[in-house]
Amino acid sequence: MTAVPGTVANGRSRVLRPQQKYLPIFATLALLVLMYSAGVLRYDGFSDTQVVLNVFVDNAFLLVVAVGMTFVILTGGIDLSVGSVVALTTMLSASLLEERGWSPYLVLPLVLLLGALLGFGMGCIIHYFEIQPFIVTLAGMFLARGLCYTISTSSITISDPFWTSIAQQRFRFGGFFISASVVVALVVVAIGIYVLGYTRLGRNTYAIGGNPQSALLMGLPVARTRIAVYTISGFCSALGGVLLSFYMLSGNSGHGLGLELDAIAAVVIGGTLLTGGSGYLVGTVLGVLVLGLIQTIITFQGDLSSWWTKIVIGVLLFVFIVLQRAVTRRQR
Amino acid sequence: METSGEARAILTMTGIGKRFPGVRALDEVDFRLFPGEVHALMGENGAGKSTLIKVLTGVYDVDEGDIVLDGAPVRFTGPLQAQQAGVSTVYQEVNLCANLSVAENIHIGREPRRFGAIQWGELRRRSRHLLDGLGLDVDVSAPLGSLSLAVQQMVAIARAIDISAKVLILDEPTSSLDAGEVGQLFRVMRQLKGEGMAILFVSHFLDQVYEISDRMTVLRNGRRVGEYATRELSQLDLVSAMIGKELAALEELEEQPRRSLAALERDRPVVEAAGLGRNGAVAPFSLTIHRGEVVGLAGLLGSGRTEVARLLFGADRADAGALKVDGEPVNMRGPRTAMARDIAFCSENRRTEGLVAELTVRENIILALQAARGWSRPLPRRRQDELVDRYVKALRIVPANPEALVGQLSGGNQQKVLLARWLITEPRLLILDEPTRGIDVGAKAEIQRLVVTLSDGGMAVLFISAELEEVLRLSHKIAVLRDRRMVDELANDDEVTAERIMAIIASGNGTAPPEAPPGPHGPDVVVLGEEA
Amino acid sequence: GGDGGAGSGSGNDDGTITLGFAQVGAESGWRTANTKSVQDSAKEAGIDLKFSDAQQKQENQIKAIRTYITQKVDVIAFSPVVESGWDTVLREAKDAKIPVILTDRAIDSPDKTLYKTFIGSDFVLEGKKAGEWLVTEYQGKTEPVNIVELQGTTGSAPANDRKSGFADVIKADPKFKVVASQTGEFTRAKGKEVMEAFLKANKDIDVLYAHNDDMGLGAIEAIEGAGLKPGVDIKIITVDAVKDGMQALADGKINFIVECSPLLGPQLMDLVKKVVAGETVPERVVTEETTFNQEQAKAALPNRQY
Amino acid sequence: MLVVLLASNLIFTPDFFAVDVRQGHLYGSLVDIVRFGAPLILVSLGMTLVIATGGIDLSVGSVVAICGALACLRISELGDQNSVVGVLMAVGLALGLALLLGAWNGLLVAQVGIQPIIATLILMVAGRGLAQLITDGQIITVNSSPYKLIGGGYWLTVPFSILVALLVFGLALLLTRRTALGLLIESVGGNAEASRLAGIHARRIIFTGYVFAAFCAGVAGLMISSNVSSADGNNAGLWIELDAILAVVIGGTSLAGGRFSLGGTVLGALIIQTLTTTIYTIGIPPETTLLFKALVVTVVCLLQSPAFRAKVFGRRRKPPLPQPDREQPTKVEVPA
Ligand SMILES: Nc1ncnc2c1ncn2[C@@H]1O[C@H](COP(=O)(O)OP(=O)(O)OP(=O)(O)O)[C@@H](O)[C@H]1O
Ligand SMILES: Nc1ncnc2c1ncn2[C@@H]1O[C@H](COP(=O)(O)OP(=O)(O)OP(=O)(O)O)[C@@H](O)[C@H]1O
Ligand SMILES: [Mg+2]
Ligand SMILES: [Mg+2]
Prior knowledge:
The structure holds 4 protein chains of 4 kinds.
Chain B lengths: L10 E10 L2 E11 L4 E5 L6 H8 L7 E6 L2 E2 L5 H6 L2 E4 L11 H6 L5 E2 L2 E2 L1 H14 L15 H14 L4 E5 L7 H16 L3 E5 L3 H7 L2 E6 L2 E7 L5 H9 L5 H6 L6 H6 L2 E10 L3 E9 L3 E5 L6 H9 L6 E6 L2 E2 L5 H6 L2 E4 L3 H5 L6 H13 L7 H14 L16 H13 L5 E5 L7 H16 L3 E5 L3 H7 L2 E6 L2 E7 L6 H10 L25
Parallel strand pairs in B: 3-10, 3-11, 6-9, 9-10, 15-20, 15-21, 18-19, 19-20
Antiparallel strand pairs in B: 1-2, 1-4, 4-5, 7-8, 11-12, 13-14, 13-16, 16-17, 21-22
Chain C lengths: L17 E6 L5 H17 L2 E6 L4 H14 L3 E4 L8 H9 L4 E4 L13 E4 L2 H15 L7 E7 L5 H14 L5 E8 L4 H14 L5 E4 L2 H13 L9 E6 L2 H8 L5 E4 L5 H13 L6 E3 L4 E3 H7 L6
Parallel strand pairs in C: 1-2, 1-3, 3-4, 4-5, 5-11, 6-7, 6-8, 8-9, 9-10
Antiparallel strand pairs in C: 10-12
Chain D lengths: L1 H11 L7 E3 L2 E3 L1 H24 L7 H18 L6 H29 L3 H20 L3 E3 L3 H8 L1 E2 L2 E2 H19 L2 H10 L1 H6 L4 H26 L2 E3 L7 H11 L11 H20 L4 H19 L1 H8 L23
The structure holds adenosine-5'-triphosphate (ATP) (2 copies) and magnesium ion (2 copies).
């Protein structure tokens, strides 16, 4: 046969492709910068670098949770239990440290393990019994929150020296600082990026999100991967809970209420498709920053009543999403 | 009749049975595969070929029977295990991940790594090399979903042959490939066979089967009819083994007298496209289709045939030129506009663009008709049953149960359902993009006859097929595409042969002048993902 | 803070005081009245108020406080719904030399220097007052008194404290028996729903103790729906004393209300001024709150503002 | 499962099933379940259609709050709160606003092409604020007997809310199963691109789904606020979206879209409401309520899962014997 198709394909390759892949990310980043500049113009003191750093400091735990959520959403699943697992972790840590007097070196790995285990359990049920992730993780959400209440209905202050020292650890540079949690969160993000981009586990995650049936027929370890992502999400939630307990130095059953929505929103704003198979962790980081920045703007505004706060959050979110959509669409 | 194996069979399956609710897909099937042979698995649509393959590779549990691979009894729990045991499979529908790049689709699960990290450069290099071996030159970092179905099929094949396996299974790998790609594939298959690999091959193209296979096993209604040496079985015998009775439809069709193009052109054109084009998809072209005329599109893989069809149907919007239906200019805003003017389009990609897998056969068949009527005027149930019943019979859809879920039908039967959907809308222009993909010989002949009958009745048909013979047999007029540009249009008279068309495609200059200068519509601009 | 954010930053230069107030949210009418009181009295007192709503999230409240620190306000005030978890951020405030006033509820930090003072109600005391009324009401009677309790949102401080304060008082007498206790999430709708279930599951209910007026009002509807007379067949005690509750009390549908006043704005502003002026303030200021029986309600109703 | 839950109630409270007539109304726990379940049923019905198109609507809770708030605000402004015309106008206004809010969601999803979860999250957040804005953060109490009828009243001894829920259920059933709407929705949810190529107005269908969901939420909002004669912008309908989605999923509709079952959804909503009522009735302490819920949800879903039944009970569903009909016609009929 003549080698005609070859000549057809030459030259037409990779037009627009690399940019297109990352376009939503760039668009989001640009809009984020725009939003930040608007804040700087509008409010005194907004330009202080610490404002940006505070967004990280205040949202470190959300970032970690969102990383786990990204894995799950990339497979086309969802994890509603994260907020409760965060609460459970803070509660368990606080109660073990304060009421039982356990060593922090024991408590820390234990709670992380427990989070991972919970995720593992949910992953198994989702995969082997073919029940929709929404329900399974919703049950997980009830379970974890319920366990919190059985530990105690009131909050517990953490005064453990190890915990407090980490909590108050500040990395200072030139008058600015970040907390230890930020460092942990950034490390988690870096590991997440590596895993998603450069390991089989990560690529299998994308494959399952693209088409689970095909992934199975292609001989990919679907069971292992699917269970792994829920385990990762459980672990990240637990780690997020630990970071939150650093941040608050308390355990409370009410922590992390509605956090799952924030995490999902961050992931989706970051350009990841809820149907799975497409998205990047960098986007998730941007998504968290968007949410954090909106919160900061609201606080700087400082004269909004409770309801106007909500309305303005909604409006800012709307403007951001629509602009993001418009930019990415026009470029196609 | 059975040839006893001189060598030891690498794979034997004995007494295999498999039931689905309401269907016994496999019943006491025996099957053997020897190293160094290409073994064709033959049978009508729904005979159980794909099911046998899925049972073997652990996609489905085996209800009864034994499988012995390389001397050891096996029962795989899934494709992963089968792959690890040396059975590499291309399943019938393209089963890859559209969101991943070509390179990844080939290598996922087996990526080259260093210290656990995937080496992307190496991965792309290997993929390019592998595709070169199959004569395919595509950008390996492009997302698979942006490529045509045929390319996807080639990628799936590339993936399978890259897994160094003992047994290679190819379930209808050639259904949307044209002669060139098939040639490349066969070259590779022969090479692998020479290296001692056992290859199981499924195809409805009898010529291909006779060209490549050494032996064949025929299935009918889930039972094994027999095992034959290919050279000892004539095509006619094979067909009667498959369908259980004699069939002469193929021959019959050749004798159909062709109506003259001149006569047809006296009738008014149904559709006239003048300079119609879309940036990045296909250069502006002009095409007229008359009442009762069958227009064939010829071209290679990726030459833009599908794009022409999509523009005429409004599946994509044209950004140049004009379209007239019945002499009236039409602003083709979408499929609904086309349907309102009695144009129907049967997509080549039945799984993603055609069927709704979780709906029933009946619902899928009436879908387009219902959409045209609007939501408030449901098709009365009696009428639905009547229509569905008629086409289930006419196209011999198996199982003949209108309430079966389409996703559970065999590939060929799914194709028939899609075809039925558009036939019941009784269009005036029917656009058929690879309508016979994966359809067995008998049904293919029926469909071809159907096309002839319909056009005799006044329907205009635009016919696209990877099989040039089929296009030649049916069309009154053939438009040739190359590099996303219509290069020629010829009346299908006695002088037109497959060779001549291939020559036009190869040289790129036909008798007709090119429609438009390259300009911005040049083939080197590709905009992907135009579908929102 | 005007539109352009003018006036943010230190207000000291022009003499006005800037107060950063981090509210929990707007989960109830009580809270809204609380917010309004703070806003109104700030305006009256000429204090520049920076207000933020944390939407029930402690994290958001911490963020807001941190923002106030960067903005260098003169005083920070906030209502901690949760008593723990404030040390870190309050230490930052202390480092920045910004005095902190707690409203509504104290925090349980061992370091009492983290805040200047605390102004608010004592939820345990409220529970106790409710219990004491009950004890007096049933004094001398011997037959068992079946009580059902509508709790606030599970895990919230008022729910925990009002429950325990009440329980402390009535446990002395074995005739008081809490036969059912369930959360009504502080809302009327839930109050009604839960009460309906109570009425079906328990034949003989003598007293209803609801952790706020709204749940009590919902329960009244349920009781009426069951063909009973609220306030007569079932005695009702609630907490808060919002206008609707007072009306029901005056109408005889509720028997006793323990006030929990959200109107601590004026007192707060006084404290703010004192703190800025460097005066010493008491470590704890309890808001002036009373209790109402049906007669008192009739008298107080006309000039009830919320 | 519903049966098991109900039965367990019987053990704890013997006269759980007793339904008698008090003051001319049906009275009893079963009646309560349906009555309090009515708003959830309504919201879930709307949610079912949205989920069937492959979307999700998080904003229903806010719409519930907004509609209740607006209706109560209008009624409280009436000179005579008992005037039927005034109440009808208020109700009409509220429902009109609900339709508008639904159209907003539909626009964002179908026209602008924003992912449903985010598109509706916007209204979920802002809508709650809107509801509070309407009520000024307070609880608006009304005293209107015509309004009271919607959620708390009775008609021919049957709670009116049950009738409304039945009516909407019937309407939805009629619209989806007697017209082709159901098929078109399932098709769009199953494969949007294929549906478009089959000539279905996918966008219009998706849009309609959101409008319907908001309408149902609006009616539910009226019901909830009417039941307690007051509008609580802060808490009305809080987290109802989760319960609604749960009801839909328990009812057998996949979150991925496609096939849906309205009857299943109603059943799912009833299961959830029975669960809630059970918790109140048998006196589970609030601290363990969630554990109990987790347990029940897990058990319900496990029992529903064919994979679970197959794996645990080892009960393979034996397929019925294939029909002996193996004959196939040889002649192709060509339709004219
Ligand atoms: N998952 C399933 N559920 C129910 N029935 C099924 C399922 N898969 C296949 N079948 C049925 O089993 C029979 C055999 O199908 P199979 O796919 O093996 O046919 P085939 O020989 O590959 O046909 P084709 O040439 O059309 O691909 C068909 O009647 C089909 O409807
Ligand atoms: N040989 C090839 N090399 C690179 N890309 C190709 C090749 N063949 C097809 N493609 C891609 O496939 C897409 C679809 O092509 P199109 O559907 O127009 O082809 P076609 O003529 O219908 O061929 P097919 O027989 O594959 O259906 C194009 O966007 C093109 O990028
Ligand atoms: Mg097949
Ligand atoms: Mg094509």
